[in-house]
Structure formats: C-alpha cells, structure tokens
Amino acid sequence: MTATDVATDTAPTIVPSFDSPAAEGRKLAIICSKGSLDMAYPGLILANAAVGEGVETHLFFTFWGFDMINKATMKDLKFSFVGNTAMHPPGHSGLGIHHMLGALPGATAAATAMLKKQIAEQDVPEVPEFLELLAASGVHLWACRMSADMNHLTEDDLYEGVEAIISASDFIELTEGAQLLFI
Amino acid sequence: MTTTTIAGHAVDVNEEGFLTRPEEWTEDLAPELARLIGLELTDAHWALIRFLREDHAAQGETATLRRVSTRTGTPVKTLFTLFPGKPAKKMAYVAGLPKPKGCV
Q1: Which domain range does residue B37 map to?
Q2: Does ipTM top 0.90?
Q3: Domains recognised in chain A with CATH numbers
Q4: pLDDT mean across residues, chain A
Q5: What is the pLDDT of residues A67-126, one digit of tens each?
Q6: What's the number of domains chain B is made of?
Q7: Which stretches of chain B score pLDDT less than 70?
Q8: Is residue B99 part of a domain?
Q9: What b/e string do you get for A125-151 counting C-beta neighbours within 10 Å, with b at 16 or more?
C-alpha cells in the first residue's frame, strides 16, 4: 500500500499492491497424474487462478494425466464413482449412492454426463478449451518423457499448446524454487 | 471502509483500495485509478472497462477474466498485455468494481 495525494478531509489514497516485489518470482508447479474427469479439473483451475495472480505456472502431465493432453483422449475424460464413498447426487449431500453401483453398465457414462453438465453450468470450459485458455494466459504445459515413450506417443499426438516432452529431471530443473502440487 | 479522494471525487474504498460503491465510479475516475497502478488507458482498455461496468450492472457481480474474453471476443493473451500480471483484478480496480469472485 502506498499513500499519495492527500485531500484535506479524506484519508490518503490506498493503492492495491498488484505488483509488489514480494510476489515477484513466485512459481507454482502442478503435477497432473490422473486421467479421470474429476481429477483433471483441480489442476486446471488452480493453474488458471495462479497465472491470473501473476504467478509463473507450470503443469507437468504424467502417467494417466497424459490423457489430459493426448488429442485422442482429452475430449473424452470420464468420471466413475466406483471407490468414491463420498458420491451423492448433485445438490443432495448426505443422500449416499453406493459406490459399487458405479460398476453397473452405463453408470460411468451417466456419471460423466452429469458431471460435465454441472461443470458447464459453472461456465467452466471442457478440458481442451481450458488448456487453450491456460496456454493463452502463459501457463507452461509440459509432457512427461516416460509417459510418452510408454504410450508410443510423440509431440504430434499432443495438444499443440504443450511446449515439449521433457524428462523428470528437466522438470525438476525448470521448476527450481517453485511451490509444488501433486494431483 | 475509508473515504478517500480520487480525481477530485470523494469515494469509499476498502482496505486494499478498491471502490466499495460501484455507483460512485464515473468515467473520469478511470484514468486516475489506472495511473495509480501504472497503466495508461487506450481505447482497447476503455472497451473492456465499459463492458465490465455494463456486465456488473446486469449480473450483479464482476466478470471473471474468461467471461470478459468470451463476451467481448478479446483473446486472453490481449487481456494479459493490456492489464499485465493480474488482469482480472486490475480491470476491476480501474472499473471501480469489486474483485471477481468466480474461480474461472
């Protein structure tokens, strides 16, 4: 906060510290390791929030998280509630659905459609459009070398906004000093 | 809440300096608010500020960065160029609106 022009009968002007030196150099690295729809969003939303706060932000997609940037799968991530004992219908906390019902044929498709609808209602984009938003905002997107090799994929198979396929050591090196989230 | 003077107008601000009463904002405040955070307004800035004002009046809340981008057809990259660092908050500040509450 800084004080400038003081009028006689009012308080000094308070200016938001948008570009305070304390925030400079802050970095956030998020490792996205899951390929299910519900686990894709936390990393995307946090990355969007961080870059909008002026934080240098890096996303590293590895293992199942590779599905988030693989052009063949990124549009079609799924949500299953098998094993999720917290599952309840939207707006009905406390009304449990037995998680093993998620194993019935069609349950994953229905749950995925429901979750996508809920996300769209919040005006939050689907995964490919979200990645576009992040790339345009300046978030750095990196693909894991081992995941690419295991799946026999190259940069041509990945979303264009991905900067490169890099090794785990490369990622550790370029996120020196960053705060880190593993999702 | 504090009352301060910006561009000759007495306005109420919160502890961060954001106007707390959007109706106290007038267009002649914007260049001074912008100057305080190191910005000089161009026509491109003004188009966004006017959108924010209209959208806030209609929706009752400040548009998020994505909403500004999709509704005005302005690429997100341009928003980061015009209001560097923290575009959503800077835009809201200059437009005399509260910080956006939405996550995306």
Answers
A1: 26-94
A2: no
A3: 26-182 (3.40.1260.10)
A4: 90
A5: 999 999 999 999 998 988 888 877 788 777 888 888 889 999 999 999 999 999 988 999
A6: 1
A7: none
A8: no
A9: bbbeebbebbbbbebbbbbbbebbeee
DSSP codes joined into one string, B54-93: HHHHHHSSPPPHHHHHHHHT--HHHHHHHS-SSHHHHHHH
- Residues A20-29: pLDDT tens digits? 766 678 999 9
Phi-psi region for residue A17, left (φ > 0), alpha (ψ -120 to 50) or beta?
beta
Residue B80: inside a domain, yes or no?
Answer: yes
Hey, is the C-beta of A129 within 8 angstroms of any chain B C-beta?
A: no
Per the CB < 8 Å rule, is B6 touching A4?
no
Q: Decide if B78 is inside a domain.
A: yes
Beta-sheet pairing, A27-32 with A179-182: parallel
Report CB contact under 8 Å: A52, B10: no
In a domain, B15, yes or no: no
Chain A window 132-171: which residues touch B at a Cβ cutoff of 8 Å? 133, 136-138
Say how far apart CA B48 and CA B95 lie, in whole Å. Answer: 9
Instruction: For residue A10, give every residue at least 6 positions away whose Cβ sits within 8 Å of its Cβ, in sequence order, or none.
Output: B2, B3, B4, B5, B10
